[in-house]
Design goal:
Elements (H helix, E strand, L loop, with lengths): L1 E6 L6 H11 L3 E4 H10 L3 H10 L7 H13 L6 E5 L5 H13 L6 E6 L2 H15 L7 H15 L1 H7 L4 E5 L4 H16 L1
Helix pairs in contact: 1-9, 2-3, 4-5, 6-7
Bound molecules: adenosine monophosphate.
């Protein structure tokens, strides 16, 4: 069982790496951002609530996000583990995740951070926004706010798992393949 947190600022390549990891290991990729966008596209009450935060680059409240994550994990007991992408983003979310996994006799194996500087993130997201149609990728001010929220509210999750000896940092600028090799090397250490 491998339970992985792919960590890093918005635009650091978590989604790209997660898609490749799913092919190599039998893991379920859970992106809370994707789950919110799904709800939003179906105009559900959860989607409508989430949108008011997402459009500003703010975090959706913890209780809403944790409840949605729990439903997703509980719906897929058959997998060999999970890749959490974009979750946890606050210390209470990390505590809730640890508790949820502990109920199932599991724990986080590793948190892998893709380290990418702010200017690179802004450029990548503006480029992505041209195709993705994501409202939060079009405006440089919203992108910078997402980066600020990451530093203020989310970066501490790295320290939370570092205290458990589980955090690793990878340089997230370079070729997708090189970064993938570095991520796999981290995972294979856990498996060894
Ligand atoms: P992402 O696709 O991970 O960049 O997430 C897009 C947006 O969804 C974020 O800017 C937040 O508004 C919301 N979101 C995604 N994951 C979380 C989370 N774990 N906690 C709170 N808000 C989240």
């Amino acid at each position: 069982m491998i339970n992985l947190i792919l960590f890093g600022p918005p635009g650091s390549g978590k989604g790209t790496q997660a898609a490749k990891l799913v092919e190599r290991y039998n893991l379920l990729h859970i992106s809370t951002g994707d789950l919110f966008r799904y709800e939003l596209s179906h105009n559900t009450p959860l989607g409508i609530l989430a949108r008011s935060y997402m459009d500003k680059g703010e975090l959706v409240p913890d209780e809403v996000t944790i409840g949605m994550l729990r439903n997703k994990v509980e719906a897929h007991p058959e997998v060999d583990g999970y890749i959490f992408d974009g979750f946890p983003r606050t210390t209470p979310q990390a505590e809730a995740l640890d508790a949820l996994l502990a109920e199932r006799g599991q724990s986080i194996s590793r948190l892998i951070m893709l380290d990418v500087p702010e200017e690179e993130v802004v450029n990548r997201l503006l480029a992505r926004g041209k195709d993705s149609g994501r409202a939060d990728d079009i405006n440089a001010e919203i992108i910078r706010n997402r980066f600020t929220v990451y530093q203020k509210e989310t970066a501490q999750v790295f320290d939370f798992y570092a205290a458990q000896g589980k955090s690793a940092k990878i340089h997230g600028v370079g070729s997708i393949e090189d970064i993938f090799a570095a991520v796999c090397a981290e995972i294979d250490q856990v498996n060894a």
